[in-house]
Specification:
Blueprint lengths: L1 E2 L11 H7 L5 E7 L4 E7 L6 E3 L5 E2 L4 E6 L5 E6 L4 E7 L5 E8 L7 E6 L5 E6 L4 E7 L6 E3 L5 E2 L4 E6 L5 E6 L5 E8 L2 E4 L5 E2 L4 E6 L5 E6 L4 E7 L5 E3 L5 E2 L5 E6 L5 E6 L4 E7 L5 E3 L5 E2 L4 E6 L5 E6 L4 E7 L6 E8 L6 E4 L2
Antiparallel strand pairs: 1-9, 2-3, 2-34, 3-4, 3-5, 6-7, 7-8, 8-9, 10-11, 11-12, 12-13, 12-14, 15-16, 16-17, 17-18, 17-19, 20-21, 21-22, 22-23, 22-24, 25-26, 26-27, 27-28, 27-29, 30-31, 31-32, 32-33
Length: about 350
């Protein structure tokens, strides 16, 4: 049975926005706010990067909604509810409205689920459980979006996951765990069932909060919050990783916590929580990073969450102090970011998802 979370209709605030409201290529952006158990919904103007909050938003979500992800079909949104140990499924309407499907999935979910990862085909959903040091794996019904546990119960991984990303093929899952040094565990995912990659875990810098995998699948990057560094790795054919000889590289900006590689795979952006900015790097053919001469780019206080739209022209930042989501235009030639606008949120954002 569908439980309608909210009737969300687009509200356009100006004539210019009304014109773009008539466009057919609508895009929507969703922000998780765990402190108020809500998801905020915006329409994104694909021509300007301007966000317009939908009427009825924010909507009520699960307790401590921490992470959200959108299915590649654009029909479903999933939310990990850390405060109640379950996962919500929402259907996405053409208007951007989301409606929750009851009941929430609890079987197979561990304690305090705080992150989600989905393969590019939308066949499997993985849940990182910070409270039980485990990963849950689910197969996804392509028609209904329903989740079915692959293994029946969470799989212990021996660490409290702080970030996780899949390789582009979906064949390998990388999970970071905190410490000094921190480390990365790699798992081969055969039909959603993880097995440890040879040589795993791999060591990195202290506090590896940020994690990104190059679209080519050839390189992996980690932002180490506690020693203000970036680690660079080559991804080998078996899924194992080898650190660059000069890695980690030091940053002059404090508290790097999130990474994002743009759609062209030419640039990587680092959210520096302690420096109120984003650092931008160009990515060489060998995976090496070079700081952009126009970097850094000023943000609101404590930038911690990054997302990019489907067209690759607009980047979004979730700022934790004075909670807000900030929109930037991205020059795809130079990598330079220009602030578009900032939108106040009802609480600290922990995850942003944009329709594909």
């Amino acid at each position: 049975m569908l439980k309608k979370a909210a009737a969300l209709f687009l509200v356009c605030a100006s004539t210019a926005i009304l014109v773009s409201c008539g466009a057919t290529s609508n895009r929507y952006l969703y922000v998780a706010i765990p402190g108020s158990n809500e998801i905020v919904v915006y329409r994104e103007d694909p021509n300007s990067g301007i966000l317009t909050q939908l009427a009825g938003s924010p909507i009520t979500a699960g307790t401590g909604v921490e992470s959200i992800v959108i299915h590649p079909s654009n029909k479903f949104l999933y939310a990990a509810n850390a405060g109640e140990g379950d996962v919500s499924l929402f259907t996405i309407a053409a208007t951007g409205a989301i409606n929750e499907v009851s009941p929430r999935t609890q079987a197979g979910v561990g304690t305090a689920p705080t992150m989600l990862a989905m393969d590019s085909a939308g066949s499997f959903l993985y849940v990182g459980n910070a409270g039980s040091n485990s990963i849950s794996a689910f197969s996804i019904d392509s028609s209904s979006g329903a989740l079915t546990p692959v293994t029946g119960r969470p799989i212990a991984i021996g660490l409290s996951p702080i970030n996780m990303k899949l390789s582009p093929s979906g064949g390998v899952l990388y999970v970071t765990g905190t410490g000094s040094p921190g480390f990365v565990e790699a798992f081969n995912m055969n039909q959603g069932v993880p097995s440890v990659v040879s040589g795993s875990p791999f060591f990195t810098g202290a506090g590896p909060y940020g994690l990104a995998v190059a679209p080519s699948g050839g390189f992996l990057y980690i932002a180490n919050k506690l020693d203000n560094s970036l680690s660079e790795f080559t991804i080998n054919s078996d899924g194992s990783i080898t650190q660059f000889s000069n890695s980690p590289i030091g940053q002059q900006y404090a508290g790097p916590v999130a990474l994002l590689i743009d759609k062209s795979a030419k640039f990587m952006y680092v959210a520096n929580q302690g420096a109120t900015n984003l650092a931008g790097y160009s990515i060489g053919s060998d995976g090496a990073l070079t700081l952009l001469t126009t970097s850094p780019f000023v943000t609101g206080a404590e930038p911690s969450v990054l997302a990019i739209d489907a067209g690759g022209k607009y980047l979004f930042v979730g700022n934790q102090s004075s909670p807000a989501v900030q929109s930037f235009s991205l020059d795809t030639g130079s990598g330079t970011l220009t602030s578009v606008s900032t939108y106040t949120l009802p609480g600290t954002p922990t995850s942003i998802a944009v329709t594909p």
